[in-house]
Amino acid sequence: MKIGELAKKTDCSVQTIRYYEKEQLLCTTQRSDGNFRLYDEAAVEQLLFIKHCRNLDLSLSEIRQLLTLKRSPGAQCDQVNRMMDTHIQQVETRIQELVQLREHLKSLRRSCSSERTIEQCGILQTLTTNQHQKR
Amino acid sequence: MKIGELAKKTDCSVQTIRYYEKEQLLCTTQRSDGNFRLYDEAAVEQLLFIKHCRNLDLSLSEIRQLLTLKRSPGAQCDQVNRMMDTHIQQVETRIQELVQLREHLKSLRRSCSSERTIEQCGILQTLTTNQHQKR
DNA sequence: CTTGACTCTATAGTAACTATAGAGTTTAAA
DNA sequence: TTTAAACTCTATAGTTACTATAGAGTCAAG
């Protein structure tokens, strides 16, 4: 199949597929006479694998590692487990940061009301004065 | 004062200050004979304002809007309020996405254990088979 | 007068795409 | 048979908010 069909089957854009090839995540094995990329079912599966990983916010570099690991089925899988643990930890940390940020934003928002002028705006006043807060 | 001193006073890198100038967030009003940028206390305050906004994850474009608004102190401040509300909503949404992602990652992680081979790896197996989940 | 610290501009790199330009290929209809 | 639409190709630039260079000029102290 050509790249357009692969794109449709995997719900991926054509440019993204070409980008993944450039990034060594999906190699094109064959080309047609007119130099069009040709793919088989294995490519569909690999691309879906990549998409599943991206849904988990894994980076392209992490995915590249996973694809490499998949090529040695006899090896131990603790590298995969460790990658997941690290990733979970990162997501956890980010959630905590955002929760703090949200509270900060909310309290800032409470410092103002409608019907005020820019000059009286509690938000701008707080942002203008020296705050001593860490993220 | 020259750019290095401004950088130190605001805990900002010299490059970042020059970048903010290029992005129209902080204009340099004066130059020395040797073409060095010169700043006053107002610049320190403006840069600190920008930093506070960045700590709240406001984008440079949003900050640019706020700086413009600050220049008409008599105007109504509901634009500021609305910007904050939108921003809070975005953070909220992102938190919810990340919480879902975390649960997804955790359940995926539970599908594997140490002491397995790549072939048996529950994580890779799940990622390989067709999943039907939305983000 | 030279050394070192500072500053200048311009350019490229980061992540993961997205969007274009300008060209060539294939398929279907007129 | 031609021609038009739809597809594909490569290469390049844009996105965000910086960071990191290169190569040159400026300034103060010893």
SSE blueprint and pairings:
The structure is a homodimer of 135-residue chains.
Chain A: H1 3-10, H2 14-22, E1 30-31, E2 37-38, H3 41-55, H4 60-70, H5 78-110, H6 122-128
Antiparallel strand pairs in A: 1-2
Chain A binds a DNA duplex (30 and 30 nucleotides) through helix 2.
InterPro entries (chains A, B): CadR-PbrR, DNA-bd_dom_put_sf, MerR-type_HTH_dom, MerR_fam, Tscrpt_reg_MerR_DNA-bd
Keywords (chains A, B): DNA-binding, Transcription, Transcription regulation
Domain HTH merR-type (chains A, B): 1-69
Mean pLDDT of chain A: 90
User: What share of residues of chain A is helical?
Assistant: 55-70%
Strand order of the largest sheet of chain A: 1-2
Which two chains share the most extensive interface?
Answer: A-B, 55 and 55 residues
Oligomer: homodimer
**Main beta-sheet annotation of chain A:** 2 strands, antiparallel
Shape estimate of chain A: elongated
Q: Quickly count the helices of chain A.
A: 6
Percent of sequence in beta strands of chain A? under 5%
Structural class assignment of chain A: mainly alpha
